[in-house]
Amino acid sequence: MKQTQIRNFSIIAHIDHGKSTLADRLLEFTGALSDRERTDQFLDKMDLERERGITIKAQAVRLNYTANDGQEYILNLIDTPGHVDFTYEVSRSLSACEGALLVVDASQGVEAQTLANVYLAIDQNLEVFPVLNKIDLPSADPESVRAEIEEIIGLDASDAVLASAKSGIGIDEVLEAIVQKIPAPQGDPDAPLKALIFDSWYDPYQGVIVLVRVIDGSLKKGDKIRLMASRTEHEILKVGVFAPHPLAVNELTAGEVGFITASIKVVQDAKVGDTLTHVRRPTEQALPGFKEVKPMVFSGLYPIDSCDYEDLRDAMEKLRLNDSSFSFEPENSMALGFGFRCGFLGLLHMEIIQERLEREFGVDLITTAPTVVYRVTTVKGEVINVDSANKLPDVQYIDHIEEPFILASVHVPNEFVGAVLALCEEKRGVQREIKYLTANRVMVIYELPLNEIVLDFFDRLKSLSRGYASLDYEHLDYRPSELVRLNILINGDLVDALSLIVHRDKAQYRGRDLVSKMKEFIPRQQFEVAIQAAIGGKVIARETVKALRKDVTAKCYGGDITRKRKLLEKQKEGKKRMKQVGNVELPQEAFLAILKVKENK
Amino acid sequence: MSGLYLHIPFCRRKCPYCDFFSITATDSLVEAYPKLLIQHLAWATEHGWSGPVDSVYFGGGTPSLLKPEAIACMLQAINQRLGLAEDTEITLEANPGTVSQHSLAGYRSVGVNRLSLGLQSCNDDHLTLLGRVHNRQQGIDAFNWAREAGFDNISLDLMFALPGQTTAELEEDLRTYLELGPEHLSCYGLTAEPATPLQQRIITGELTLPDEEFYADAFMLVHEQLTATGYEHYEIANYARNGYASRHNLGYWKRHPYLGIGAGAHSFQDIQWGRRWDVPPDLSTYRQALHDWQEPMRCLETFDRQGALSETIYLALRTAEGVSDINLQRQFKTTLQEAFPEAVEKASPWLCRKGDCTAMTPAGWLLFDHLIQAFL
């Protein structure tokens, strides 16, 4: 296929602005889907993706399109994951394209997440053109959204396509604009092979399936290839494209997008952003932009029923087959038994994994509070990474601790700026900039410690702005910080699963809040239960759950025996889900209390 | 020996805390009912249930809505079908608002020898709150009439932990009860049973039950006052003077067999590891079944050894006598300690040992539901 007849593009949109629906329409209009296949949101294959409107894996679909000029084109739609945790993955998907559609809800305007991805696209010299979606809604205001796009992004929106993906309005115009506006790829088909990996997943029959964009050269079945960052070599077994069903092709040449299989066993070997080249005639220089993806947020996942441990491990292994950024290792908690310490890209990634484990694999979980990776320098000068409060060395061995900072961009209507600033200050933020994008739209930029973000920042941000604020962040650096380990003791026994690393200034408040929250969740027991928060040996907060005084069925006569005994048996069954610490039974809610700390000034 | 329970599912009006099966009484329903019971009795004796019985208990509902003649008629049928032992305990539950000197004398003369009077309280405000049809004076009168009629074994119900109740009010109630001097007392903390009007009023916040501290203190107060005046606290909710413990109710806790007849009544058979039955709590279904000569009872559960063992302990620990290792050894070839070492360990601060028996202390009884779960 001549490169002049190829267009590689992706769609940038905020959640709910209609990206998946538009993608479905493009598939439909180009005849890629049969009527029967027109389920909603074809590309979001997982239930979770559909429900939450989040794309987790990238996709690449080839569309055949005959344009108004009578010529046949191949349009490759590269669907990118859509969340703040996946910025790197998005950047790699974008660099497989020459252009992007910026889909903006004509009644809502531009959001921070969109903005971040538009900037990513512009930085990579993509041709970006706007599509105003949901144009048929009564609240649609294309003129002011057009003005906003020009003002905020600096993109010419005068000939933005007006569309309604839902009603099928403007789809032809979108397809035409793709052909007209997005440049054709300009690789060198004769140069040594240079292909970009922009996603991969595991298939039980074929091994890892790798999505590639060929930049220069060409590849075909039987080729010996090298993954430059992984430094591994493989033979290509299969070359194909998704149209949208997999279709074998003879070769992929410069400008084309498709997939290969090469008996790669694990996705960890086909890293997003890696460059693929020929063993015999390698390219000299790998494609720029490759990064090793490292988990940034960690938490302990424990099966509620310890019998589910093996099942949980199997489930995690299956998930890891498809997700190179998810990591786990066995961990042992005195309170929770055997479980795993897991690493995630961010909070959303964590939630997604937890939800998939519970939903797809049917394992009930207790999750410990998420934590970030702290860098601890010991008095001996050793530097260790600490991803769990329980791994923090004792105070006397610590010279200093550093914590990761992020650069957070909060995009918010004017009226909520005060509340956002207060939140960022409370979260130990350092103000970088407040940008007025338009008279009513503000970008608040803060340097913030990641450990404050993983607690409840998102929820608080959403509630204080009634859902209008959106957030994007990137990792900045590590900074020295006064951090301490906060322990929770139940009747004097340390509950390891509840330990936290917190800033010294926040320890007192957090300790008090936590013990009072836990008090609500711990039912009265045979004996009085003391809940204490302590830093080192010093108790900073205490609550007491009084001993149970009364739990008795007054009447038990002939007609009551069966029913009342069965009620007690049921209660007993319910208690099996409790975790035993010393002689105290803790319900799961007590462990979740730690996730629900609210800070109010 | 076994017991016989007859359920009389009629009330003048339903008390808001009650979750027993009863319906509003009409003369025709009440008059037609004894015949059904006699039919049921006939059906049961033709299907393997046998006597003689050493306790008969007319419970409800409000059995005192039945005329003495109806009671006499049923007792006669029972004697014919099952046989009454020489010293059979024959109890009738009576609502003080439905009895007269005449009716009480009648019950006594047809053979009822134990009267359980649903007094509940001697505080008029509390009686109103509980939705009772009688007041303080009617309650006291009923008791005195019963004595005059020759009842020398009378039980009174006392309810405590009532919404808004003070300790002084409970003490006042206890004083009045002790002055009356019944042979037996059943003392219940008020409980909001599911789907009762009382529970509804608590959910809506209209009423508040006292907290568990008040309940516990009230329970212990009742225990101390009654045991100090010569009553034995022989079961969680029951007190008796020496020799006056309810034989019928002790049968429940000792897992002795009993036949229950009447709509909503339960039965227990001691064949193999035991089997429990009930009659569906619906009068027309019941009538129809007897009319068609179909099985009026349905089997609720059949026990295996472990289930029978657990239930034996669950019931016996409600009594002051407790669980007898000799009994367990005879029935199950085990002992309490051997069968449930962890549960015994957990409950040990609230257990005491008398000879071969293990019993709960009164403070343990307050935690009965909590402690017993480990034995189930």
Write up this protein.
The complex is a heterodimer of chains A (601) and B (376). Chain A contains 13 helices and 34 strands. Chain A is of the alpha+beta class. Chain A has an eight-stranded antiparallel sheet. In chain A, strands 2-3-1-4-5-6 form a six-stranded mixed sheet, sandwiched between helices. In chain A, strand 4, helix 4 and strand 5 form a beta-alpha-beta unit. By secondary structure, chain B is α/β, with parallel strands linked by helices. Chain B has two domains: 3-252, tm_1862 like domain (pyruvate-formate lyase- activating enzyme, Alpha-Beta Horseshoe), CATH 3.80.30.20; 321-375, no CATH class. Chain B is 41% helix and 22% strand. Chain B has helices at 27-46, 68-81, 101-109, 124-129, 136-148, 167-180, 197-203, 212-228, 247-253, 283-291, 305-316, 325-332, 336-339, 341-347, 362-365, 368-372; strands spanning 2-8, 10-11, 23-24, 53-60, 84-94, 114-120, 154-160, 184-189, 232-235, 238-240, 258-261, 266-269, 275-278, 298-302, 323-324, 351-354, 357-360. In chain B, strand 12 and strand 13 form a beta hairpin. In chain B, helix 2 packs parallel to helix 3 (101-109) and helix 6 (167-180) packs parallel to helix 8. Chain B starts with a strand and ends with a helix. The mean pLDDT of chain B is 96. The interface between A and B is medium-sized, with 22 and 45 residues.
Q: Span between N and C termini of chain A?
A: 63 Å
State the helix count of chain A: 13
Whole-number average pLDDT of chain A?
A: 88
Question: Shape of chain A, please?
Answer: globular
- At the fold tier of CATH, the topology name of the largest domain in chain B is pyruvate-formate lyase- activating enzyme
Count of strand segments of chain B = 17
* Tally of structural domains of chain B: 2
Fraction of residues in helix of chain A? 10-25%
